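pls ignore typos typing on phone
magnesium ion + seq
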Amino acid sequence: MDTRELNPHSKHIFLFGRSRAGKSTFLSALIKHITDSIDVCTNPEGNLDDKILINQWLKDLTENKFPNMTPSGQIFEIEVAFAHREKQFQYTFIELAGEDLQQIQPEFGGRLPENIENYALNSSAFLLLTDSSDPSGALSDNLMFWNFFNFIQSQRTLPLRAAVVLTKWDNKQNGETAENVMNSHYLQTLQWVKSVRVIEGKVFPFSIGKVTNGTINTLDYDNKIAPIIQWILKS
Ligand SMILES: Nc1nc2c(ncn2[C@@H]2O[C@H](COP(=O)(O)OP(=O)(O)OP(=O)(O)O)[C@@H](O)[C@H]2O)c(=O)[nH]1
Ligand SMILES: [Mg+2]
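k done
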């Protein structure tokens, strides 16, 4: 894995979740939303691989395509700098393969690769993504989040900013609530997110839009992304 210095002028946002949780899809929608609705969006200091990835994501979205699976062993820094209501913001979203993040689980070694640890320990906020349409995977995600919290907590004493993103929400029945899903399948995660060790812990449902047979039929994510961006802007 590459080793890069963390940009000290940018707040790092760490995305955590297993393979196919929907991390890249979520992040591509977030970047597209910022590009479309906020004054300027650039990635001034990102390297070429990061820029190629962002451009590919934006192209995929305009063609209603899902992003490719993130290659294992690479760290992408998705840098966005923008002005919003006359204030300047700069964020670096850390985009990783679920395969690498899963190493936190005891059966995969029980530790994140060292340079991923470095990003995790220096991030300002954490987004924990889980596939809300997969109850059988929820149990292991709940455990994986628990292991991740324990790792962060063992290294940092201050409370952290963390939120859960329930992805693929389009598969849910009308009337289903994020609270119900958390209470049914992610009890420890919910307790942790709502505890005093987490600042402004939230649970956000998210979907890219209407998906039929694995293909994006209609993009419809802006109203789900907007409150998440508001939450990020406070970090
Ligand atoms: N129905 C539905 N399916 C989704 C949605 N987002 C992602 N998917 C499906 O989930 C798959 C995985 O999504 P990714 O965003 O690539 O997942 P990831 O967490 O980045 O996975 P890795 O790169 O392997 O870590 C996609 O290829 C889609 O098939 C969504 O909002 N709704
Ligand atoms: Mg990915």
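The chain has a mean pLDDT of 93. The chain has eight helices and eight strands. more later
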